[in-house]
């Protein structure tokens, strides 16, 4: 390094050097999108990833939030406009980004679906006929947010904008797989099992990174590391103790067989290495209320990229914003039930997106809540569950029913068994039923097509409280990150000045979903912000 150069976040002395024009750190949807855009502009690109690539995208449901008249919507006969999509997102995400950025996200939404299709991501125009948290393998276009809920349908007509990549089960691999193959075909270099440890700064500009790579390790070590990385992603996501053991073993392999290298990047470094849900210390510091959730992400979501950006002069925002998922469907019959707290009071329009319920539970009700259903609703739910669910939804619902259910012939009896205030629950049900009988709006604003009279018992209370659980976990992921220039994707300082040569995208950065998340909005923002960063970095001299 020159006298004016420094490494931030790294340690040790590198014993090798690589060079490129654009260095992409993290190979998920954001990293792949950045690489493709930079290559399309003619830049030389090197992509590095600590693990096997894919990030949280590859293990996700593979939903893309898009609208304003996409090719898939048109094929399905779904009418949507940019104005309608913008109206909904303004209400949903608030001031997460500037108005002009949200407008640009909406205006380019149809083209994003076309771009993804051109790179091989498969879509299908089959519309889910019922509202659900995630459609089964017959349907690939659905209401993936709160579009059909009371507070939002009053603003703009509800429209299906959740574009599920076509593929059985969780479809994330159907998003990342084609993008990764396209990156390979583009001529970008990809180096897996390479962990970036710090950024190289010269005269205030980021010009590269230091890393530890297993590229030169014995083949058997590389294979072992790859197997452990795959297991840590899935099934490790469902069983954190197993993931922690694998993480420790992978770290030992890196320490023993890793080679320190320096990577020079003449045009820029793009940090697209995920959020920080896997970093328990960061969660304890910035979002302690959410410590009881299941980390919905990979080992790579450890906040390391965010820390490196901060060490280079960047600033963070929204680190206390976490998406906590508490879906009550499938079965769709539960939309007709009510969700109550310990006082027996309702807390939300039950047709809202599951992260809205999760947020309310954690922030306003100490994580405590129950679904109250009458006998008829439980019978309908039992019929619906097998045909509306994928395997993981079935497992979660069966876990809820087996571990968190109490029953009673009367409201007072079931409330007593659950530890809920009986008088409060009885009054809540009376107010709910009276509104329906009198033709008045639901007290919590739930649309009429989802409201049902709470009828005869026996009554069931299902405990949906947020707490550590293997049987009925509450998946969570982080929404905050480092601030970026919304025109370029460059990381910015506290006074808003760009840090030359340093970009952030996806969940490493503050983006469209920094305030509020609905299904598909994170991957859409990964594509949007990744392409933005890749294009601007490639255009640098």
UniProtKB/TrEMBL annotation:
Residues 22-511 form the FAD-dependent oxidoreductase 2 FAD-binding domain. InterPro entries: FAD-dep_OxRdtase_2_FAD-bd, FAD-oxidoreductase_2, FAD/NAD-bd_sf, Succ_DH/fumarate_Rdtase_cat_sf. Coiled coil: none annotated. The keyword Transferase applies. Pfam families: FAD_binding_2. Keywords: FAD, Flavoprotein, Methyltransferase, Oxidoreductase, Transferase. Its cofactor is FAD. One of its GO terms (molecular function) is steroid dehydrogenase activity, acting on the CH-CH group of donors. One of its GO terms (biological process) is steroid metabolic process. Gene3D superfamilies: FAD/NAD(P)-binding domain (3.50.50.60), Succinate dehydrogenase/fumarate reductase flavoprotein, catalytic domain (3.90.700.10). NCBIfam families: PRK07121.1-4. This is 23S rRNA methyltransferase. It comes from Mycolicibacterium fallax.
């Amino acid at each position: 390094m020159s006298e004016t150069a420094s490494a931030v976040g790294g340690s040790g002395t590198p014993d090798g050097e690589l060079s490129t024009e654009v260095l992409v750190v993290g190979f998920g949807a954001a990293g792949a999108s950045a690489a493709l855009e930079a290559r399309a502009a003619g830049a030389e690109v090197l992509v590095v990833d600590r693990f096997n690539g894919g990030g949280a995208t590859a293990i996700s449901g593979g939903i893309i939030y898009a609208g304003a008249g996409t090719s898939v919507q048109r094929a399905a006969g779904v009418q949507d406009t940019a104005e309608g999509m913008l109206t909904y997102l303004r209400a949903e995400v608030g001031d997460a980004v500037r108005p002009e950025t949200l407008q640009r996200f909406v205006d380019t939404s149809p083209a994003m679906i076309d771009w993804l299709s051109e790179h091989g991501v498969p879509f299908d125009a089959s519309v889910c006929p019922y509202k659900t948290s995630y459609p089964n393998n017959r349907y690939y276009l659905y209401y993936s947010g709160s579009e059909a809920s009371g507070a939002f349908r009053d603003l703009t007509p509800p429209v299906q904008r959740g574009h599920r990549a076509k593929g059985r089960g969780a479809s994330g691999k159907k998003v990342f797989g084609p993008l990764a193959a396209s990156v390979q075909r583009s001529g970008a270099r990809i180096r897996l099992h390479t962990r970036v440890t710090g950024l190289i700064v010269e005269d205030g500009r980021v010009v590269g990174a230091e890393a530890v790579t297993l590229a030169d390790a014995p083949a058997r070590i590389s294979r072992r590391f790859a197997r452990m990385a795959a297991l840590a992603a899935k099934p490790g996501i469902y069983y954190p103790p197993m993931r922690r053991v694998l993480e420790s073993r992978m770290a030992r392999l890196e320490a023993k067989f890793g080679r320190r290298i320096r990577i020079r990047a003449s045009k820029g470094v793009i940090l697209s290495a995920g959020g920080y849900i896997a970093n328990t210390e960061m969660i304890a510091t910035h979002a302690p209320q959410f410590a009881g959730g299941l980390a919905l992400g990979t080992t790579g979501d450890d906040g390391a990229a965010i820390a490196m950006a901060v060490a280079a002069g960047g600033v963070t925002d929204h680190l206390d914003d976490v998406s906590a998922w508490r879906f009550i469907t499938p079965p769709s019959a539960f939309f007709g039930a009510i969700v109550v707290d310990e006082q027996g009071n309702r807390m939300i329009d039950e047709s809202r997106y599951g992260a809205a319920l999760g947020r309310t539970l954690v922030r306003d009700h100490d994580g405590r809540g129950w679904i109250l259903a009458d006998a008829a609703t439980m019978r309908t739910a039992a019929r619906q569950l097998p045909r509306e669910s994928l395997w993981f939804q079935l497992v979660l619902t069966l876990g809820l029913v087996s571990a968190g259910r109490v029953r009673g012939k009367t409201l007072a009896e079931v409330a007593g068994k659950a530890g809920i205030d009986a008088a409060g629950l009885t009054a809540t049900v009376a107010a709910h039923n009276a509104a329906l009988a009198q033709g008045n709006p639901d007290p919590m604003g739930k649309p009429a097509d989802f409201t049902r009279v709470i009828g005869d018992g026996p009554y069931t209370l299902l405990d949906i409280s947020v707490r550590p659980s293997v049987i009925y976990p509450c998946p969570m992921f982080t929404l905050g990150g480092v601030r970026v220039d919304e025109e370029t994707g460059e990381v910015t300082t506290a006074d808003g000045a760009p840090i030359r040569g340093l970009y952030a995208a996806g969940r490493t950065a503050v983006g469209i979903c920094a305030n509020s998340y609905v299904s598909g909005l994170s991957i859409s923002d990964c594509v949007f912000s990744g392409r933005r960063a890749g294009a601007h970095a490639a255009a640098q001299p």
